[in-house]
Amino acid sequence: xxxxxxxxxxxxxxxxxxxxxxxxxxxxxxxxxxxxxxxxxxxxxxxxxxxxxxxxxxxxxxxxxxxxxxxxxxxxxxxxxxxxxxxxxxxxxxxxxxxxxxxxxxxxxxxxxxxxxxxxxxxxxxxxxxxxxxxxxxxxxxxxxxxxxxxxxxxxxxxxxxxxxxxxxxxxxxxxxxxxxxxxxxxxxxxxxxxxxxxxxxxxxxxxxxxxxxxxxxxxxxxxxxxxxxxxxxxxxxxxxxxxxxxxxxxxxxxxxxxxxxxxxxxxxxxxxxxxxxxxxxxxxxxxxxxxxxxxxxxxxxxxxxxxxxxxxxxxxxxxxxxxxxxxxxxxxxxxxxxxxxxxxxxxxxxxxxxxxxxxxxxxxxxxxxxxxxxxxxxxxxxxxxxxxxxxxxxxxx
Length: 398
What we know:
Structural class: alpha/beta
Radius of gyration: 26 Å
Helix content: 40-55%
CATH architecture of the largest domain: 2-Layer Sandwich
Strand order of the largest sheet: 1-4-3-2-5-6
Shape: flat
Low-confidence stretches: 391-398
Number of helices: 20
Oligomer: single chain
Mean pLDDT: 94
């Protein structure tokens, strides 16, 4: 394979954009990040391929301004694999597709057994891709040539894969289904930040008491601020288990903290003053966190039989019907209708349990028109069936 060169200046980007603009058909796009190495989720390599133009590899931190590329391909269909992972990083660079084709999502909708990029490429066009560098630190500079070959292959065959999947979707009468799903992914807003993200600290369930939780919160916040400052993944500085170990050890002094053998990580000792200051701040914080946060009002399904028997009956009646429908359509149940959407409608159904009312409720929870069309009547029938009283048993002979 030819040697690949990373474009790392604006002049190179402008030249590449002109070549890509003169290419033909859809544009394959992929992003490599440094997840697990860097704090940010920014793109550290952007790969672009178009027929008649070839593959181009761009270095986003070095280039900075991708206006020329957006102008060159901003009116074309972009082909991505697992687009929801890459779109935020692309938007951070000012790159916004007008329409997408998601090869991973298409494969799901078609019922492919495996939907990773390598599996989909092999299933559709018979080419085997090596996935040796998917978890590499893409912020490394210079990037090794084997990594660049791997990155180029991620887009080199993607348009061919797209063409095969387009035909499969048409044959399965799922073209419009895919179009709606692709557009939902493209236009999906970013999730709002969690109100208390520190509660995702792995192992936090072992911490008891509001004061100890305040210390855990202070340590997590201090690590987050330092990780952002140095652009390093928080877990590489001090792992979650180490922070929890420090809380559970309840050290009396900074020296005691240094002696906690489970308190490990590349910054556990070099930033000891920082961590000790966080512990002291947590101990002095007057705003103690509650031990348990309120949920969204809907308990886990295992508790429904006691908490809301009617909802439990509705869910148990509808879930197997939806699962069977997904089986008939040859797609995963969660792509036909997310389990959370079904649970919410079962927990709080509309007053009228008919297909139109159920459809409106599904739509209010984010279901796409094709999902409503296929599932509303199935769910409404199941809900009505769950209301039927069991037949009276004959009285025993006296």
